[in-house]
Amino acid sequence: MAAATERKSLAVQEPKGWRRALLVVEKAIKESLFDCRMCGQCILHSTGMTCPMRCPKNLRNGPCGGVLVDGNCEVFKDKPCVWVQAWQRSRKLPLWRDHMKRLNPPVDWRLKETSSWENLVSGRDQQVPEGWRAAAQERSKPS
Amino acid sequence: MTETTGKGSRSHLERLLRGGKFVVTCELRTIDSADPDSVRKACEPLQGYVDAINCTDNATAHPHLCQLAASRLLIDNGLEPITQFSCRDRNRLGLQADILGAASLGVRNLVLMQGDDVSVGDHPDAMPLWDLDSMHLLRVAAMLRDQGVYLSGRKLTHPPEYFIGAVANPFAPPHDFRPLRLGKKVEAGAEFIQTQIVYNLPRLREFMKRVEDLGLLEKVFILPSVAICRSARAVHYMRDHVPGIDVPIEIIKRMEQHVRKEDQVEEGIRIATETVQALREIRGVAGIHLIAIKWEEVIGRVVEASGLLPRPTPAVKTVSG
């Protein structure tokens, strides 16, 4: 395996104590329930409780154009497209239905294998690159 | 500049679209040669028939002559490139550097997309990057231009100027979500769209209606793609091997009814011309993107048969360099 895929927490120190416990609990729950990939910046509730990181192209903003006619993935042809599932499941949720229209920022790969619960509480998962923040602000202004 | 409309436009293509002209774009064939003359030969039959030409980025996950070089060679031959970038082969550093590089070489149109997976190409053993997705890439290109900064926030000394395009596939599931996804692309920065190949016209009409209802037609120019197929075999291949293409049975039957190769060629041209005509009737269709795999000569025939000649001459020639 390439070194790049084996690198876990790119910049975050190995958590200890209660942080480690939180990570272990989150991982156990989310991996078993959602086949979660522990990106550390969870948007499950925005995607009909479907982990978008299961998409082989790492899409964070909806399905690519290669979805097969039967709704399966173009890469894993025997599996349903993660984003087709996300769309259908998000229609059934009472909340967050509009989140599918949201423009989700790029993944911060430093957060991989960290606890998204901890990152949610600390606000770390809301940090976006400076350029992204500037562009989002500018574009949300009424024209 | 002699045009009175489309002021402030960054490219010939943008000027035409903003001036309300029905545009024609097509694709440069993939080049597997280091001889610059290969690009000249490939683009020669397109002269005078199209307004701008897509230079693909390792199309269907096969390496070819890079799109930056191809784009610059097109400019040197007096044609306007539309330079494609996919998210597969470059991370956010590489993408930003190469977009800036493209602009410095005179590129004034971009088309930004996710890209095919390496598994469909001839290097399925490669590591695909997928650092950014197509939505991120659109926003990053707009950010370089409009905010004059990299994604990190670091300032550019001279921001690039270009017209930003994206792709859309109205034919792939989930169909309800596709117009909303287009809306997201517009929000991210897309100013024009080239669609997946259109065979299923009713589906496209439905899509365009939804796009109109979302108020997107005032914000984005839509160029559906039309493929010109040479044979029944080519249509079968497209249906069975190209992900995301919806080929209705009627099209396949029309191609199969002919035994002789020449008759299939003529039928392919007829289908393409009829599709172009039908597309021109749809509200919001601002032009077409013609796709003829390694068959440049036929582009002119379809453009002519569709009554789209002569093409307007570019007001601005090449940039110096």
Characteristic key phrases:
heterodimer; A: 143 residues; 5 helices; disordered N terminus; B: 321 residues; alpha/beta; TIM Barrel; eight-stranded parallel barrel; 11 helices; 38% helix
Description:
The radius of gyration of chain A is 16 Å and the shape is globular. Chain A has helices at residues 3-6, 18-34, 82-92, 116-122, 130-140. Chain A contains five helices and no strands. Chain A has one domain. Helix content of chain A is 35%, strand content 0%. Chain B has a single domain, classed as TIM Barrel (Alpha-Beta Barrel). Chain B is built from eleven helices and eight strands. Chain B has helices at residues 12-18, 36-43, 67-76, 92-104, 134-146, 178-188, 201-213, 232-241, 249-256, 261-280, 297-305; strands spanning 23-27, 52-55, 81-86, 109-113, 163-168, 192-197, 221-227, 287-291. In chain B, strands 1-2-3-4-5-6-7-8 form an eight-stranded parallel barrel, surrounded by six helices. The mean pLDDT of chain B is 94. At the A-B interface, α3 and α5 of A face α5 and α6 of B.
Write the layout of secondary structure elements.
The complex is a heterodimer of chains A (143) and B (321).
Chain A: H1 3-6, H2 18-34, H3 82-92, H4 116-122, H5 130-140
Chain B: H1 12-18, E1 23-27, H2 36-43, E2 52-55, H3 67-76, E3 81-86, H4 92-104, E4 109-113, H5 134-146, E5 163-168, H6 178-188, E6 192-197, H7 201-213, E7 221-227, H8 232-241, H9 249-256, H10 261-280, E8 287-291, H11 297-305
Parallel strand pairs in B: 1-2, 1-8, 2-3, 3-4, 4-5, 5-6, 6-7, 7-8
Helix pairs in contact in B: 4-5, 5-6, 6-7, 9-10, 10-11
Question: What's the gist of this structure?
Answer:
The complex is a heterodimer of chains A (143) and B (321). Chain A is mainly alpha-helical and 143 residues long.
